[in-house]
Design a protein that fits this description.
The chain is an alpha/beta fold. The chain has a single domain (about 25-110), classed as Endonuclease, Chain A (2-Layer Sandwich), CATH 3.30.870.10. The protein contains five helices and three strands; from the N terminus they run H-H-E-H-E-H-H-E. It has helices spanning about 25-30, 30-40, 60-70, 80-85, 90-100, and strands at about 45-50, 75-80, 110. Strands 1-2-3 form a three-stranded parallel sheet. Strand 1, helix 3 (about 60-70) and strand 2 (about 75-80) form a beta-alpha-beta unit. Helix 2 runs parallel beside helix 3 (about 60-70) and helix 3 runs parallel beside helix 5. The N and C termini lie far apart (about 60 Å). This is Phospholipase D-like domain-containing protein. Pfam families: PLDc_2 (PF13091).
Length: about 120
Amino acid sequence: MSAGTAQAAPTWTEGPVFNDPLGAESEHLAIRTRLIELTAAALPGSTIKAAVYHVWEASVVDALVAAKDRGVNVQVLLDESSTSDRPAKTSYNSLAAALGTDRTKGSYVATCPVD
């Protein structure tokens, strides 16, 4: 049996992240990229709390579900229009199936109520 090597903790630049549609291709999706990186680095037992307007990117949904599968508590709050704007292709349904919708549990997806 050989000893494994410890992975170095990721380092992040603190502060806001913005997409730059006029920048290099990697800058077009900077927010999505950072969200996926942070989600992938979350440790079992930790909690991800995300409040976003919409999540249409399958890669973001997949990263959040993978984090939950690793033992991370994933709590997502979306705008109600996430369930109605694209009813045939809603990531809310995928998140609800994987995370559940019970806000008393460690992981869930919920929507903001409509006024």
